[in-house]
Amino acid sequence: MRERLAYWAGRLALALSRRLGRGGTSLPGRVALRVDPALLGKLARRCERGAVLVSGTNGKTTTARILAGALERSEGAPVHNRSGANLPPGLVTAFLRTPPPWRRALLEVDEAALPRAAAQVPAALLLVTNVFRDQLDRYGEVERTARLIESGIRRLDPGATVVLNADDPRVAAMAAAAPGPVRFFGFEASVAASDAKGPLGDAGRCPRCAAPLTFTARLYAHLGRYLCPGCGFRRPDPEVTIQGFTALPWGSRLEVAWAGGALAVELPLPGLFNAYNALGAAAAALALGVDAEVVGAALGAAVGSFGRFQRVDAGERQLVVALVKNPTGFNEVLRTVEGIEGEKDMLFLLNDRAADGTDVSWLWDVDLERLSRPGAGIGAVTCGGERAGDMAVRLKYAGFERPRLQFAQGVEAALDLALARGSPGRPLVIMPTYTALLALEDVLARRGVARSFWEV
Amino acid sequence: MDRRLVLVHLYPDLLNLYGDRGNVLALSRRASWAGWTLEVREVGMGEAADLAEADMLFVGGGQDREQKTLAQDLLRRRDAILRGVDRGLVVLAVCGGYQLMGRRYVTPEGEEVPGIGLMDLETLPGPGRLVGNVVVAAGWLEEPLVGFENHGGRTFLGPSAQALGQVVRGHGNNGRDGTEGAWAGKVYGTYLHGALLPKNPAFADHLLRQAAARRRGEVPWPKLDDLEEHAARAVLMERMGLRGQR
Ligand SMILES: [Zn+2]
Q1: Which chain B residue's Cα is nearest to A354?
Q2: In this structure, are residues A149 and A177 in contact, taking their beta carbons and an 8 Å threshold?
Q3: What is this structure's pTM?
Q4: Most buried in the list A355, B26, B37, B159, measured by CB within 10 Å?
């Protein structure tokens, strides 16, 4: 009774927010949860095949989208919070937006919300992408996040499969917490890893005994093949692997292999991090019994989420939008941007609200120096957002100077400045932090350039 | 004529934390814009450092639980650092590094970690963390210091220590007595990062000028073009209700 009341209250809120022209990725769920705080578990139990959860610090949204493509092709579209609203209200909203009956729920879940979600939702599978330090990680934040995920894993049903990234030591160590079967995915291909240098910090320590790990290969950040000289903890052999990786201008060619099968596919999303996203999605799909052919089709048709490397045509100007949210992600984006042929202009949009990280010093851990090297192909550089000055200071110390480097306060003013400065033939690469991305999306939608991201 | 300075950056590997790199980068860029060369020597845990030849020493901030390992290594370098300071070594210590410049540091678990006693101060645990943007009035500089703080330890200055400045916005050393940071001679300690020196060019130049004086006596230091730096500062000041101040 309470569940029905909550469901319909949420549906009503959804209809209203649609009428008002808002996407409403969380609000309807918030209304419904107020009526019945236990609603998420009740709705999830109505799914014929249970739920699939995706968590980790980076790549959740893209991974879940690729996995959704595989499920959709093999059994019909799942209930899915595809916009990336990954707290309980967002998860409930996904159910409100999808008319029943529900076959399966595919939920991207924030790490902090995972323990509760895992306890409430009958999950058939949980996929963990990675644990990177976030902007605010000064004081063991990585370890705290990893423990939250582990506590989620402990609350799963014994029948649930846990799919883990073997190349991330802290994620691989989560296998010990799994009550049921575990599957690993990882890179076997050797990749020239230009970013895999620099200090590892905490991520380079053994999750079991805290001794510094020995890496025989590093792909990027702290992902690679490792061994602990102290206690013998080592990278587990992954069941689903990437045997071949070739970077293409807008994607990569992947050879994925597992016991009893293999597939070769062109992934239309660029960069090593997206190859990891695809690999994780493939491992989860295979564990759920999806056909190899269908998995291949899903990878080949992968679409990033708004701001996770998206090309947008704005009149004569081509925009490339890539969300940046922590040093690792930012470095990967820069590496990928360098792969875009020819000269390109740059627009950096830095905000410092809670969702962006209120401490902007994380910028100093980003290898922006690489952009000012000769031959990097960078034209005009513009900074904006609420902390435009801080971004400009960072780039100044990275080797850029006026007039090539300019800044304007706010998102819209900076966008206009960047558009006015560049030359029409050159793509404008826009790198916003999270709330700057939302503001940018607003401006672009208002100008009729991009669809709203809840419609994607 | 020799316009070369040597900076020793302690524990770049261990204390890979926000802004530390920015501080070193700011010193090295600003030195070169002023016509000097700053040679940066990175020295990790247990590695030998020739402080006799150094003009500047930078010790960054670490994670709370790294403080003990760090303290052991610093204690082994104590005499070398003291000798350097006697010869005019300019020291900047931030966050965790700052805490260990004092007499002692008490962990949240109550364990006592000895510091190197370069400054008369001690750090005790407190409830919660002091986090946020900070503005500090420092009369000896032409502009206030701005930055971001994030620390659990509360630092209290002894009678022979002097605060770097008075807190205008934020928490500072301990959130109670209105002081932020400390200095003694050419040794400076502070909780501010964000990064500290790129956003406080006057402070960066002050440190460089002192290091240069060690080599060549008082030298003129050019006024640099700090348009971007001032834009970054202005946003912070305005947000803190300090519009119009630089
Ligand atoms: Zn170990």
Answers
A1: B132
A2: no
A3: 0.72
A4: B26
Give the strand order in the sheet containing B121-124.
B112-114, B104-106, B121-124, B154-157
Closest residue of B to A396, CA-based? Answer: B228
For residue B208, give the nearest of B67, B59, B68, B24 by alpha carbon: B24
Contact across the interface for B232 and A397, Cβ inside 8 Å: no
User: Mind listing the pLDDT tens digit for each residue in B201-244?
Assistant: 999 999 999 999 998 888 889 999 999 999 999 999 999 988 76
| Residue B226 touches partner A, C-beta closer than 8 Å | no
Across the A/B interface, how many CB contacts are shorter than 8 Å?
A: 91
Contact A387 B235 (CB under 8 A): yes
CA distances from A176 to A121, A150, A208 (A): 21, 9, 10
Predicted-complex ipTM score: 0.94
Contact check, Cβ <8 Å, B232/A396: no
pLDDT beneath 70, residues of chain B: 1, 14-18, 62-65, 244-246
Contact B233, B199 (CB under 8 A): yes
pLDDT of residue B62: 67
At how many degrees (to 10) do helices A88-97 and A2-19 cross?
Answer: 80
Active-site positions of B read: 95, 193
Q: B232, A387: Cβ pair inside 8 Å?
A: yes
- Distance in angstroms (rounded) separating the CA atoms of residues A40 and B219: 69
